[in-house]
Design brief:
The protein is mainly alpha-helical. The chain is 70% helix and 0% strand. The chain contains 7 helices and no strands. 28% of the residues are buried. The model has no long low-confidence stretch (mean pLDDT 85).
Length: 161
């Protein structure tokens, strides 16, 4: 069997493809919807589909194909995938919602204490907004998971070769 491209590892090759497709979709969607090209979405978090989910579900699928679903390494990857997907739809999404609330409160502080007092007590760095698009909706996680599984299955022959 010939080695893979990334660190001579075929699993990493396929997982990278799953991640890239999910992230590149996030770059292309605004081009068609808003006629806006934003390459930063390629390495940004949040949005449809979840690249975290596509990556870990593809990893799990690849490991299942290469080593079988009764292997210890498959068990490890399926638990890892569950934790990552739970985190992205739960904890990270909640953190993004909290960032939105904090950003809204920070915007309103000058209305309560006046702009002069605000400028006196708060530096310009404090005006930087917190990142709100951190996690994913459950649908984004499920779509990312499905994408990862499909990519892994498409490359079954490559993984076994």
């Amino acid at each position: 069997m010939s080695p893979g491209i990334i660190f001579n590892n075929r699993v990493l090759d396929v997982v990278f493809i799953a991640w890239f497709i999910a992230q590149f979709y996030k770059v292309l969607t605004p081009v068609f919807k808003k006629r806006k090209f934003d390459i930063t979405r390629l390495w940004d978090t949040g949005g449809m589909p979840s690249s975290h989910s596509s990556t870990v579900s593809c990893l799990t699928t690849c490991i299942g194909i290469r080593y079988g679903i009764s292997s210890d390494i498959f068990a490890i990857t399926i638990i890892f995938a569950g934790i990552v997907m739970y985190d992205s739809a739960g904890i990270r999404r909640a953190a993004g919602k909290q960032a939105g609330v904090i950003n809204s409160l920070i915007e309103k502080i000058p209305l309560f204490i006046g702009r002069a007092q605000y400028n006196k007590h708060f530096s310009k760095e404090k005006e930087a907004k917190l990142k709100e698009l951190l996690g994913h909706t459950p649908v984004e996680v499920v779509v990312g998971c499905a994408l990862g599984i499909v990519i892994g299955l498409i490359f079954k022959v490559y993984l076994q070769g």
